[in-house]
Amino acid sequence: MLIISDSQELAAFCARLSASPVVTIDTEFMREKTYYPQLCLVQLAGPEEARAVDPLAEGLDLAPLFDLLTNPAVLKVFHSARQDIELFIQVSGRVPSPLFDTQVAAMACGFGDSASYETLAYQLAGVRIDKSMRFTDWALRPLTPKQVQYALADVTHLRVVHQRLVAMLEENGRTAWLDDDMAALTNPSSYQVPLEDIWRRLRPRSSAPRFLAVLQEVAIWRELEAQQRNLPRQHFVRDEALLEVAAHHPSSEGELDRVRGLSHGFGQSQSGQKLLAAVQRGLAAHQSGKLPLTLPERVELPRGLGPVSDLLKVLLKMKCDQHGVAQKLVASAAELDAIVASDEADVPALQGWRRALFGADALRMKHGQLGIGLHSDGRRLRVIPLGGEDSEERDP
Questions:
Q1: Are strands 38-45 and 99-101 parallel, antiparallel or unpaired?
Q2: Which residues, at least 6 apart from 77, have a Cβ–Cβ distance to it below 8 Å?
Q3: Sign of CA dihedral 218, 221, 227, 228
Q4: Each residue's pLDDT tens digit, 251-310
Q5: Is the peptide bond before 47 cis (omega within 30 degrees of 0)?
Q6: At 81, is the secondary structure helix, strand, or coil?
Q7: Largest alpha-carbon pair distance within the chain?
């Protein structure tokens, strides 16, 4: 059987996989109508066998699976791992480790930003992935053989993708490039947002202290209510409604009912009363002066320096094209602005291999030591040393 729903069978399967140095993993889940994603299927493949584990099977003990996920002798390979890891943290409290994310690795191997599994499977394994069941309801039982086969394709071909990417990284001397990214993926703090910081997800534009103090409290209120009801945040109360509540801080049921995005009579409900109490807590915190909240600092370029950032974007594209690396892996637009604002900007682009590939020349260009011009054929750009400096055109 390709699907495991028996505890004894799962334990035996995981024991066999634990002898393999590499296991490929994927999950299927549902979260459109719930706050917490529902884990519906876990697919795993070793060198000789692949199975799907049914976590919805009654009485199935998943402990052997969780032990395998944290076995230090087994490398766990995912594609675009973040959501899978969040799921496993939710259901087991543990982070899969050690880990390899083929999407991140693909960015270091010239496959562009956020390459899909379908793309890598075709280009590296020579197979076309059937995605006709992408939106199937994985919570319905029984699963059909076609569903199981579809799900297993996400881990069987992933083994070949992983092998090819590892070979490319080793050939290019780029294996160590992924260390920081994989460490971030396996760091539990990457998936934990303290309740008091939930408000930052709403990306408010106003920095008024009273507004932010109220927004913090009403965002906490919505998070706890959504968790209790197991509803998506936006299904319960939309961001726009929370921002309006924080801006106008209603103090009565009638005022709350006038907030756009809240249903008529919401102020009289138990949730509405809790929301009004949250508004009052925010106002009290502001008045006490004990809650200094600030928006993340934004790099504001002095007038006239915008074109410098644009020039660095061109240099970044040139360097990434030259070395076959995704721009997203090297530097973001915000990091480029930070470099323009300060030579000592604390950004990855000025550290390690990223500095050798791009950051050092970005600083030279910023200080007029490098320029950009056209080759004689008029079709290609080139870096031009200025002021006697030589550009470092080397692959780190």
A1: unpaired
A2: 22, 23, 24, 25, 99, 100, 101, 102, 158, 159, 162
A3: negative
A4: 999 999 999 999 889 999 999 999 999 999 999 999 988 766 776 655 566 666 788 899
A5: no
A6: coil
A7: 74
